[in-house]
Specification:
- The complex is a heterodimer of chains A (162) and B (345).
- Chain A folds into 2 domains: 42 residues; 118 residues, no CATH class.
- Chain A is 45% helix and 9% strand.
- Chain B has an 8-stranded antiparallel beta sheet, with helices on one face. A two-stranded antiparallel ribbon of chain B has the order 6-7.
- The longest helix of chain B is centred in the C-terminal third of the chain and has 47 residues.
- The chains are: A mainly alpha (162), B alpha+beta (345).
């Protein structure tokens, strides 16, 4: 597969964004990935990753339902507006997070919930988690990690109950 | 306010050079980013919303906090020089605040990029201890303030680069041996490949590197806090081994020249009448190496660490009065350094 930008070199970085079940792929060679800041000696620069978010009507209309942050605001500042943005921008954030951290799943410290309990999940949050879990399920099955796949299936069931 | 200023005037405890590998490592630092559930992130909040956020935190917080605009412009600059906040923090001050405790080994910055940034700096190499201590503070604050947390993404932050553990650990290494060896490029490349960020210099408003390198973790999501810390510390130990080797080669192949450079640097610092910050940082790197290699015995690392903070512009202006003349500033810096170094240890 050739690089989507220079159409000359073999693509080594693969970028996928899922918006409303439509997947947009970008495949870049190492040189173009370096130019875009995907691979950098100083590490990954978010500002340089942002131009990779595709300009499609679905993406361009994304807006946070709580703080009103638009995708253009995010493109401009590379900062989100409130915790809810992680739900409403999930479709574009998931591939970004994969590139920055190599993961989309927190496995570190869990917050104590005794005095500061977490709010109940909203419908949009449940929908976001569905998208994430389905992607993780597919990945686990393709890697033949059936143990993890079973755990993810349980998580999906738990979500459906919520 | 007097108390806060006093706290910011004495050298912070992390400069005392008592930590592990202090002859190679200036400090170990951990930052935890936290946000509150019910508020917009500071960038998106209006000035009055930011003031509300500050009050919400200050009322519940057990540590003393104060608003940034209560500090004089010089004291605000000294915050940057003392590694407490970045220069961006000094812009648009409304609702911004901070707290400092335990001789500045702990600090909290309110309404910078995120609602809360807790920082813990300790002397030498010991990220494990730094994490243990900052984690206690974090648990304590979590009981007082409703953190924004998602089971999928962890601690939610304004920038997706900090999400998850929202933990940024960094180690400031002094690598004069490697700088003079061909291996430096190889070591830096290896660090990048391992997923660490490497910055020359050690922050705090210093533009001159002084053979300092700061290595920190890039990824904050998908790894446990302990894993991040262990891998960074293990890597720093490997770099220290490379540096030991490079210092050994340097002294074996050019002992006379290196010793001469160290003594000359020490001589200039003790006698000069004009010292730019850049010159001080470069010369003090040679002196630091001289102390580590036991060539200089009448000066110690603690004195050099303290000077590294106290000779910065806002500190010198605080010590000996404000001035717009750079020559005057260089003179006051040289006089201060001369006074401290000629006192002996």
């Amino acid at each position: 597969m050739l690089c989507d930008l220079c159409h000359k070199e073999v693509a080594v970085i693969h970028w996928a964004v899922v918006i409303n079940n439509t997947k947009t792929d970008l495949h870049l060679c190492e040189t173009c990935a370096v130019k875009r800041g995907l691979i950098s000696p100083e590490g990954i620069k978010l500002k340089e990753l942002l131009p990779l978010i595709p300009h499609t009507p679905e993406v361009d209309n994304i807006k946070c339902t709580k703080c009103g942050l638009t995708i253009d605001n995010f493109r401009e500042t590379s900062r989100l507006g409130c915790p809810n943005c992680y739900i409403d921008f999930a479709a574009i954030l998931i591939p970004l997070l994969r590139h920055i951290h190599g993961s989309i799943e927190h496995i570190g410290k869990k917050m104590k919930t005794s005095k500061t309990s977490l709010p109940k999940k909203s419908n949009s949050e449940i929908k976001m988690l569905h998208t994430i879990f389905k992607e993780q399920l597919k990945e686990s099955i393709s890697k033949e990690n059936y143990e993890k796949a079973a755990l993810i299936r349980d998580e999906i069931k738990r979500l459906d109950i919520e | 306010m007097k108390k806060d200023n006093e706290l910011m005037f004495a050298p912070p405890i992390w400069t005392n050079a008592v930590g592990n590998y202090s002859d190679f490592v200036l400090s170990s630092k951990i930052k935890l980013t936290r946000n509150l559930q019910q508020f917009k992130f500071p960038d998106r909040a209006t000035p009055s919303e930011k003031t509300k956020i500050f009050n919400f935190i200050a009322e519940r917080f057990q540590y003393p906090t104060f608003l940034l605009d209560k500090l004089s412009p010089l004291d605000r600059e000294r915050l940057v020089e003392r590694h407490i906040a970045g220069p961006e923090f000094l812009k648009n001050m409304e609702g911004k605040g901070l707290g400092l405790w335990d001789k500045e080994s702990f600090s909290v910055v309110i309404n910078d990029e995120d609602h809360i940034k807790i920082q813990h700096i300790i002397s030498g190499l010991n990220l494990g201890l730094a994490y243990k201590e900052i984690n206690k503070v974090d648990n304590f604050i979590a009981d007082l303030l409703p953190y924004s947390f998602s089971s999928q993404f962890g601690y939610l932050t304004a920038s997706p680069t900090n999400i998850g553990t929202a933990l940024r650990a960094s180690i400031c290494l002094h690598l004069p041996g490697l700088v003079h060896s061909e291996k430096l490029r190889k070591v830096l490349d290896k660090l990048s490949q391992l997923g660490f960020a490497v910055k020359t210099g050690c922050g705090g408003g210093l533009k001159t590197e002084g053979n300092f390198f700061e290595i920190s973790n890039l990824a904050t999501l998908g790894r446990k806090e302990e894993e991040i810390i262990e891998s960074l510390e293990k890597t720093a130990l490997e770099v220290i081994e490379y540096e030991k080797e490079a210092r050994g080669i340097l002294f074996k192949t050019a002992r006379l020249q290196v010793e001469d450079k160290i003594w000359r640097a020490y001589g200039i610092l003790k006698n000069a009448n004009l010292l730019s910050l850049e010159e001080f940082v470069n010369l003090s790197s040679a002196v630091r190496l001289g102390i580590a290699m036991k060539i200089l015995k009448d000066v110690d690392l603690k004195t050099i660490n303290e000077l590294l903070l106290c000779v910065k512009p806002a500190h010198i202006k605080t010590i000996s009065g404000d001035t717009n003349s750079s020559t005057e500033l260089d003179n006051r810096r040289a006089m201060y350094v001369k006074k401290i170094l000629n006192k002996g240890c």
